[in-house]
Design goal:
The chain is an all-alpha fold. The chain is 57% helix and 0% strand. The longest helix is centred in the last third of the chain and has 48 residues.
């Protein structure tokens, strides 16, 4: 039976890369990540900058275990204290508020580029409702004039791996033959990962900018309300 992974695998991997001499293979194996993800963190190519999480402090590793791994590059780190499992109730896929306005564009792209994908698959992948999908397909959506088909991966609504898996499953169910199948993406895993990380980084930058604008607007509104309250208090006196 495979041992559990750290509670926060990416943050833990970041800490191990920065604070130990463990090999990328050892870190990837312990954190349950692909070695290319660990390599991207070390090369500063990762789209998201994770704050390191000390596995020694959390009890998931001991200093002795780390030293044992540093002394032997073939040694597999042993989880010392398994993290408490956090379960998630069934429900629609969560999408940050800043990205929800992009959902219709992502849905339109899938409907146009991969008509073989079912509404149920789109609903699960993007985190939307079948009514919304139907409205976009039938062009009865309230905002249809402003909807522009855009790759959901670029929009940050899903990962390239998730999209590829859904498309492959839909093609298999539809009985697409080898001759009819879409061209195979011949890019290496590293190129795909770097492209995915860059798309994620762009999405994060966009989300951060939107959040900053919202915070600025909220601060202005609060100041305006305080000013009006002060004026009202002075006039009452």
């Amino acid at each position: 039976m495979a041992q559990p992974t750290p509670l926060m695998p990416h943050a833990t991997a970041t800490w191990l890369v920065d604070n130990t001499a463990l090999s990328f293979e050892q870190i990837a194996e312990f954190c349950g990540l692909h070695i290319l993800e660990v390599q991207a963190m070390a090369d500063d190519l990762a789209g998201s900058k994770y704050t390191g999480r000390d596995p020694v402090h959390s009890g998931e590793l001991t200093q002795e275990e780390i030293e044992r791994g540093q002394a032997d590059a073939t040694y597999s780190l042993k989880m010392q204290k398994a993290p408490v499992e956090v379960t998630r109730t069934k429900g629609p896929r969560y999408t940050p508020v800043s990205k929800r306005q992009d959902k219709p564009d992502g849905i339109a792209w899938i409907l146009r580029s991969h008509p073989e994908v079912s509404d149920a698959q789109i609903s699960k992948l993007i985190g939307t409702t079948r009514n919304t999908i139907t409205a976009i397909r039938e062009r009865s959506h309230w905002n249809i004039q402003n909807i522009q088909p855009k790759d959901p991966v670029t929009l940050g609504l899903c990962s390239q791996r998730e999209l590829d898996a859904v498309v492959a499953k839909a093609a298999k169910r539809a009985g697409v033959t080898e001759g009819e199948a879409a061209p195979v993406d011949e890019r290496s895993d590293k190129e795909k990962l770097i492209e995915e990380l860059r798309a994620e980084r762009e999405a994060n930058v966009k989300a951060a900018a939107e959040a900053a604008q919202e915070a600025e607007a909220e601060a202005w509104l609060e100041a305006k309300r305080a000013e009006e309250a002060a004026e009202a208090s002075e006039s009452g006196e």
